[in-house]
Structure formats: structure tokens, C-alpha cells
Amino acid sequence: MRRLSDVLYATYARRLTRQLGSAPLPRHVGVLVDGNRRWAKLRGAGTEEGHRAGADNIANLLTWCDEVGVEVVTLWLLSTDNLNRPERELRPLLGIIEDVVDSVAATGRWRVNPFGALDLLPAATTERLKAAAERTGEVDGMLVNVAVGYGGRREIADAVRSLLHEHATKGTSIEELAEVIDVEHIAEHLYTKGQPDPDLVIRTSGEQRLSGFLLWQSAHSEFYFCEAFWPDFRKVDFLRALRAYGERHRRYGA
Hints:
By secondary structure, the protein is of the alpha/beta class.
């Protein structure tokens, strides 16, 4: 027999789904999966346990996104700053990230696209991420960007560097490039080139800042900050985020 709490939860989830009605839904959702450490600390557990609990919730999020027709999901799993953490903490976290990316790829439902400073990661980690991308390259499903070793400022710097290299091979002078360069030129060299910018960015754990996540792409995004730590983020929290998004009048910076 189902517990009353389960029945109430299911009823509330159905109510939230109905409330979405014909409201617009995001094509691209970015998520800062924040709060794993604090979740673990509150339970007297270790950091690794918190990260594993967070990793276990990723498949749920992707399923919820798929159910409502989201086309692109970007998950920020590791920042460039986190690469400076002690080896005893970083190595288990990288192992968890490798496992979760493999598990996403293994479903055969979603296309995996890792990005970030992959050159700064251990070679074994980079190989596993790229292998997951290759295995899912032909999957006709939701695109899952996995940001690992990611920093928004570095992405923009990488985009400009790539742009300069491209024009250098064409023999374009700096003066000539300065005359024609615009935002579209830079956007074509971002990690997310060819993708729609995120319509909705969700951050868990109660923190209300972007911390450098998709700095360029989120210029016109709607933001939703949730108090729940990432391992506790539930379907109803996701549906609330969608409801809030649907209720907003997007002015695209106006």
C-alpha cells in the first residue's frame, strides 16, 4: 500500500503538470548541480558520498526534461576552479563524473557532448568523456552538454583564441579582423556553437549567482534558484521551475 506522502506527492506533481498548460517551455535548460557537499555534511557523510548522491539524480533530471520536450540540457559538473582541489578529493570526483557520463551514454536515449578545459583533465578522464560522445554521436535524442573543467571566462577566451587562429590561417590581418568582428563571430566559436542559448538556468542549493556558468549564452536567460540541495532536487522542483518560466514575460534584455 502506498504511503499517504507518496500519494500526495504524485497528486501535486500532476497538478503542477496541468498548470503548465499551453505555457511556453524552454528548448535549452542549463543546470548548476550545486549543494552535494553541504547535503553530505548535514548527514555526517563524506564529500564523495554527496557527489555520488548528486550523480544518481542526473538521470532523473534528464528524464523529466525529455518528458516535456526539452531539446538541450547543459549540466555543470566541474568548474576550472575545482581542478585545483587536492588530489584525494579530485580523483574520486572525476571517477564519479566518468561513471555518470558513461551511464547517460549507455541509455542510448541522449547524445552526450562534453566540453570545457578537457586538456587540463587527466588523459584517462578525457578519453572516457570523448568515447561517450563518440558512442552517442548518431543518437537522435536530446543533447546533453556535460561541462567538465568549465569556466565561463575561459570559454570566451578560448572562443576569441579560436577565432584569431581561424583568421590567421586565412591571412586576415588584425586590422581587417577588427573591422568586421561582431558577436556572431565569437558565438560561432563557443563550446555551444550551433545550439540555442539556454532559455532557463536552474541553480540548486539556494545560492543566487551564476559563478561563471554560460556567461555569454545566458545574457537573455531566465534564472530559477531553488533552495534544495542537488541530491534532494525532485520532479516537483523541476516542474515549479518550468511553471515560473512559463509565467514570465521574456523581454530579451529590453
